[in-house]
Amino acid sequence: MSGVRAVKGTHDILPDEIGPWHRVEDAARRLFGRYGYREIRTPVFEETQLFARGIGAETDIVSKEMYTFDDRDGSSLTLRPEATAGIVRSVIENNLMNTDPAPRVYAIGPMFRRERPQKGRYRQFHQVDAEAFGATAPSIDVEVIELALGFLEACGVAEFELVMNSVGDAKCRPAYVETLRAALRANLGKLSADSQRRTETNPLRVLDSKAPEEQELIAALPRIGDHLCAECRDHFAEVCRQLDLLGVRYRLDHRLVRGLDYYVKTTFEVTSGALGAQNSVLGGGRYDGLVKELGGPDVPGIGFAVGIERLVLAMPAAEPTARCDVYLAVLAPEGRDRALVVQRALRQAGLAVLMDHEGHGLKSQMKRADKLRARVAVLLGADELARGVWTVRNMAASSQEAVEDARLVEHLKEKLNG
Ligand code: ATP
Ligand code: MG
Q1: How far, in Å, is the centroid of ligand 1 from the Cα of 108?
Q2: pLDDT at site 329
Q3: Residue 70: strand pairing partners
Q4: Which has the closest alpha carbon to 105: 172, 41, 15?
Q5: Within 10 Å of residue 34's Cβ, how many Cβ atoms?
Q6: What end-to-end distance do the CA atoms of the chain give, in Å?
Q7: Residue 300: C-alpha distances to residues 118, 204, 263, 268, 349 (Å)
Q8: Of the candidates 386, 375, 372, 379, which has an alpha carbon nearest to the alpha carbon of residue 342?
């Protein structure tokens, strides 16, 4: 076992780092509940074909980022690279569209993609994901976006930008993709190898390219906004109008195509300046054909996913929290039994208590109480034992008082609870 380390691209979330994760999860549960979303937990692995069919075989995720393995019976399984496909599978399998009058769910958990690890990009990362089924109205797009932004705000992220686009649908996008492909083919010599390949496999992805030498060319390519059918154009105009109505600010970006094939109409992303190169904290959009594609009824859907690692990076640093309310310092061995009884009573009263079990000296115990950010240290030495009292030391004020043994638990409850 010596020298075993975490797998490349994975990371531990240590006890000292867990505070913002809890804040994120608490904010999700509180806020999503207000919008009628309930939690769903689906398996972290699924049949490979779910993702191939759902996300699209030509996407980066499916073609090179999935952790796929053969099970012992020969079936092909994949660690989920995103949450939507599994949720849609579950919604279909459990018939939630017909049994739940408001089929809206959220999920929190790990995702797996074999990408090149760097700051804000990992092979196991975590997402908060929200999905709403059964609604086509633009006001649902707006509500989902409002929820996404409200969630970031609830996590304390102040600085972010909402970027919006419409990627059309099955009626208008195919013709646009061909127009785009033709324009790209006419400029093939000026494209990177990646973009040349994507010209054939998935031309929309070229719009996503960050290669500096292609930017000028890409800026001059045909834009999806000029090729939307009337339905998609009206839908997007109404989404934007309602965002304006609610005072939600956004930037339109015709190059926002997102990496998953299932998106139609509204797509959006939120970036944060606090993040550096991997600046996208959240992505989402409408996926009206996906439920049907995966074998369910023709039910529309829309959702988003927030990367928790990136969200935490964008959040303000949290004050370190206290490990205990009370630190019991037993300085005389004869006091230990009484301390054990007091410790139990205090915990039953709802207080967090730690004590020294090893008989350390006063100085070392006070140091520990300090490091644990105890609110009070309660000392029981030979002198206190003789007088039938405890010394209660207020750590912040460095003041102390003697409290009768029989009144100690009541005293601390009054002082520290509420
Ligand atoms: P990126 O721009 O980083 O490639 P993406 O478009 O692949 O993101 P989505 O698949 O839409 O991202 O996932 C939504 C969110 O999940 C992202 O905005 C990001 O916060 C987070 N995310 C995606 N991939 C990773 C990863 N490898 N490591 C950490 N977070 C990630
Ligand atoms: Mg990606």
Answers
A1: 14
A2: 97
A3: 76
A4: 41
A5: 9
A6: 47
A7: 35, 22, 11, 17, 50
A8: 379
Query: Is the pLDDT assigned to residue 417 strictly greater than 90?
Result: no
Name all residues whose Cβ lies below 6 A of ligand 1: 82, 113, 115, 120-122, 125, 127, 258-259, 278, 280-283, 305, 307, 309-310
Tokens of 204: 């929309």
Q: For 28-47, what is each residue's pLDDT tens digit? A: 999 999 999 999 999 999 99
Helices marked H in 56-106: 60, 84-93, 96-99
Helices (H) and strands (E) in the chain, counts: 16, 16
Looking at residue 117, its amino acid is: P
Measuring from atom 9 of ligand 1, which residue has the nearest CA?
283
Neighbouring C-alpha atoms within 13 Å toward the C-beta of 205: 19
Residue 1: predicted pLDDT? 62
- Mapping DSSP to helix (H, G, I), strand (E, B) and coil, where does residue 303 land? strand
The confidence score (pLDDT) of residue 277 equals 80
**Cα–Cα distance for residue pair 418/414, rounded to 1 Å:** 8
Please report the atom of ligand 1 found closest to the CA of residue 310.
Answer: 20
Centre of ligand 1 from the C-alpha of residue 309, in Å:
10
For ligand 2, the distance from its centroid to the CA atom of residue 396, given in whole angstroms, is 47
Residue appearing with tokens 């994120």: 24
Contact 85, 40 (CB under 8 A): no
pLDDT digits (tens, 9 = 90+) for 239-258: 999 999 999 999 999 999 87
Point out the ligand 1 atom lying closest to the alpha carbon of residue 61: 7
Query: What is the residue-wise DSSP string for 242-281?
Result: HHHHTT---EE-TT---S-TT-EEEEEEEE-GGGTTS-EE
Q: Which residue has the tokens 């090893």?
A: 358
User: Which amino acid is located at 331 in the chain?
Assistant: L
Per-residue confidence band for 418, with pLDDT thresholds at 50, 70 and 90: low
Neighbour-count burial of 109, counting CB atoms closer than 10 A to its CB (0-12 exposed, 13-18 middle, 19+ buried): middle
**Beta-ladder partners of 270:** 162, 282
Q: Are 28 and 109 in contact (CB under 8 A)?
A: no
Distance of CA 412 to CAs 151, 246, 359, 373, Å?
37, 49, 23, 16
- What kind and span of H or E run contains 47? strand 45-47
Check: CB of residue 296 under 8 Å from CB of residue 346.
no
Dihedrals φ, ψ of 394, to 5°? Answer: -80, 115
